[in-house]
Write a structure and sequence with these properties.
eight-stranded parallel beta barrel; 16% strand
């Protein structure tokens, strides 16, 4: 079964089978074999063959797959592949713009992770988020900025992208989905920037981030790790709740602890446990 807590989701190109095992050993919470942007057009079919061979040789492996976009010639074949292989435990749907596109992916029988990365996708967020089969949403800021002709890296572009992030999180909660994943940080050699971006998304309610290199995985995990004071507080809250024998509300250090406070404490401990 796919993990509920996904802090890091690491892409590996489907055209680089020698990297599959390395990606699975990199410590990421999820590995995504990419059939889309990271694979050159002539190698699309070869990417499927590569993953099929790997899954046959490694029956214990569990990966997600980012299929080609709904309007791509290989989209249907990608979906048929995902349906056929038990080692594929989730499907990332790029360039999603309608609930009907999600419905087609749901036919694979695998959880669907739509990536919101266009104006049309943003405008259809409510329908996409509530489509049956959706596990969580992902945010594709780079493609969204391109689609909207934003001057990426400017305060104005950041403001717009943060508003879009907010919409993705709002509709995720409205549809009772798992926390969304933020988009990739393209500068592999910028751990400080990745740390800031990941923490920024976390503060907006995101559960983690997509990434493109194994070196980014520990940076993301560190950015999401609760501080020592927060963890100490969370453990004391949970311990006090146990001592209170399930009471709906109780006091700790002169402060009332009720269900929302307890839930936050439990989430902090779960996040730290990974």
């Amino acid at each position: 079964m796919p993990q509920t807590i996904v802090r890091s989701a690491l892409f590996v190109p489907g055209s680089r089978p020698e990297r599959f095992a390395k990606a699975l050993a990199a410590g990421a919470d999820a590995v995504i074999v990419d059939f889309e942007d990271a694979v050159e057009e002539p190698l699309k079919r070869q990417a499927r063959d590569n993953l099929a061979a790997f899954l046959q040789d490694n029956p214990q492996a569990a990966v997600r797959v980012r299929v080609n976009a709904p309007d791509h010639a290989e989209h249907a074949a990608d979906l048929a592949f995902c349906k056929q292989h038990a080692g594929v435990v989730g499907v990332l749907l790029p360039k999603v713009e309608s609930a009907a596109q999600v419905a087609a992916v749901r036919e694979t029988g695998k959880p669907v992770l739509p990536i919101i990365e266009s104006a049309k996708g943003l405008l259809a967020l409510e329908q996409i988020a509530h489509a049956p089969g959706v596990e969580r949403l992902s945010f594709g800021g780079l493609d969204l900025a391109l689609d909207l002709n934003l001057n990426n890296g400017t305060p104005a572009a950041q403001l717009f992208l943060d508003q879009a992030r907010m919409s993705v999180q709002l509709h995720s909660r409205g549809a009772d989905l798992l926390p969304p994943l933020d988009g990739v940080h393209p500068a592999i050699g910028d751990p400080e920037g990745l740390h800031r971006a990941t923490r920024h998304a976390y503060d907006m309610g995101y559960g983690g981030a997509l990434c493109i290199h194994p070196r980014q995985v520990p940076v993301i995990h560190a950015a999401l790790m609760p501080g020592a004071d927060d963890l100490s507080w969370a453990k004391r809250v949970v311990d006090a709740s146990t001592a209170a024998n399930g009471a709906g509300a109780f006091q700790l250090d002169g402060q009332m602890v009720d269900a929302p406070v307890l839930l936050r404490a439990q989430r902090l401990l779960a996040l730290a446990a990974g």
